[in-house]
């Protein structure tokens, strides 16, 4: 039976590189590119079919930053497929990144340069906004929209006689210090990206605790330092022209500088080949590239408290109820206005 694999944020970067690797590994799988920009999704599909002409590649319109879009996409998925083998939660945003230039150049010529590039700790802040649902945009896109998608797809994901897999694209920038249980949306902070990624690490652990008995398994990966559209948006183009030779040089001495989307997708691809029972739910699986260019995957324990992960899971369930009520009232108002017209 063909495997059904859904990848969010699949039209570029790590998501598209993963799709290439999956089709190379298994040309018989049914691959669904779940994307916000359908024009780019069409281009990605065409590129995949050019290199894999016999592949089965579907498109799905999904904006994980919009609860209404998530619910509509989930209904479409349930109408199309009777199972989901892999759900790769890869879509994410880092809006309006601001770089601490002084700290950057200080770190560039220090012994801390590798850790600085790997984690961006002390370097990056972002200016977040509210979305149309009244949620913080980064939180909604990187975490809550994916959580809502999982909840809607539980009939396909949670089948006792069939193991389904969720894989989160996290980050080395996922830091406990950036997250607050009293402010899970990070309304009052300046590091929403780091907060959302740490929250996804915790959510993965909670999902395993609640859903493994129902056949659903969740894993987390870190792609390493990868040059994607998200990364390039952090600095002006002339900065990258100066820095890239230094980064390629540093890569000789560290394995976390994967640099290319293909290399960054290593752990995502590796997990596709593993049995879920063999994986550690408390580990983050890192894509690594040796100085000689060899790709491999290595697990590292996550700095996560089980009690905190359970509290987050409960808060997300409560928020889900609130969001569903808002959407229901909004749709009722639209129908009433339509009838009056």
Write the layout of secondary structure elements.
Blueprint: E1 4-8, H1 13-25, E2 30-35, H2 38-51, E3 56-61, H3 67-80, E4 86-89, E5 97-99, H4 101-108, H5 113-119, E6 124-126, H6 137-152, H7 154-157, E7 164-169, H8 192-211, E8 216-222, H9 229-232, H10 237-250, H11 261-264, H12 266-272, E9 283-289, E10 295-301, H13 306-340
Parallel strand pairs: 1-2, 1-4, 2-3, 4-7, 7-8, 8-9
Antiparallel strand pairs: 5-6, 9-10
Helix pairs in contact: 3-6, 6-8, 8-13
Q: Which features characterize this protein?
A:
alpha/beta; single chain; 8-stranded mixed sheet; 47% helix; globular; two-stranded antiparallel ribbon
- Biggest sheet details: 8 strands, mixed
The amount of helix comes to 40-55%
Q: How many DSSP H or I helices?
A: 13
Which stretches are poorly predicted, pLDDT < 50 over at least 5 residues?
Answer: none
Q: How are the strands ordered across the major sheet? A: 3-2-1-4-7-8-9-10
What string, H for helix and E for strand, traces the elements in order?
A: EHEHEHEEHHEHHEHEHHHHEEH
Through-space gap between termini: 50 Å
* Backbone structural class: alpha/beta
Radius of gyration, in angstroms, nearest whole number: 20 Å
Q: Strand share of the residues? A: 15-25%
- Give the strand tally: 10
Globally, the shape reads globular
What is the mean pLDDT? 89
């Amino acid at each position: 039976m063909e495997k059904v694999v859904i990848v969010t944020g699949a039209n570029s970067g790590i998501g598209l590189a993963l799709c290439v690797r999956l089709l190379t590994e298994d040309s018989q799988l049914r691959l669904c590119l779940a994307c916000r920009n359908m024009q780019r999704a069409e281009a990605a599909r065409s590129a995949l079919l050019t290199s894999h002409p016999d592949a089965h590649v579907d498109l799905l319109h999904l904006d994980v930053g919009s609860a209404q879009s998530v619910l509509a996409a989930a209904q479409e998925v349930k109408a199309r497929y009777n199972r989901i083998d892999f759900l790769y939660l890869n879509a994410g945003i880092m809006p309006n990144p601001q770089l601490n230039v002084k700290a950057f150049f200080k770190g560039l010529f220090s012994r801390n340069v590798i850790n600085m590039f790997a984690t961006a700790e002390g370097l990056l802040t972002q200016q977040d906004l509210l979305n149309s649902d009244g949620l913080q945009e980064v939180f909604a896109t990187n975490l809550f929209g994916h959580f809502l998608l999982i909840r809607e797809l539980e009939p396909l994901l949670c089948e006792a006689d069939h193991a389904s897999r969720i894989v989160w694209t996290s980050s080395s920038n996922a830091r406990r210090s950036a997250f607050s249980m009293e402010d899970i949306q990070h309304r009052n902070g300046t590091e929403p990206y780091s907060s959302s990624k740490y929250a996804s690490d915790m959510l993965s652990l909670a999902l395993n605790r609640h859903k493994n008995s129902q056949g659903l398994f969740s894993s987390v990966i870190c792609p390493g330092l990868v040059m994607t559209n998200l990364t390039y948006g952090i600095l002006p183009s002339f900065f990258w022209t100066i820095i890239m030779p230094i980064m390629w040089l540093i890569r000789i001495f560290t394995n976390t500088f994967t640099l290319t989307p293909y290399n960054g997708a290593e752990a995502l691809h590796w997990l596709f080949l593993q049995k879920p029972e063999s994986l550690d739910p408390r580990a983050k699986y890192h894509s690594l590239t040796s100085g000689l260019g060899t790709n491999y995957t290595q697990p590292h324990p996550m700095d996560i408290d089980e009690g905190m992960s359970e509290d987050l899971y409960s808060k997300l369930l409560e928020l889900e109820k609130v969001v569903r009520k808002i959407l229901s009232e909004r749709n009722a108002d639209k129908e009433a206005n339509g009838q009056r017209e």
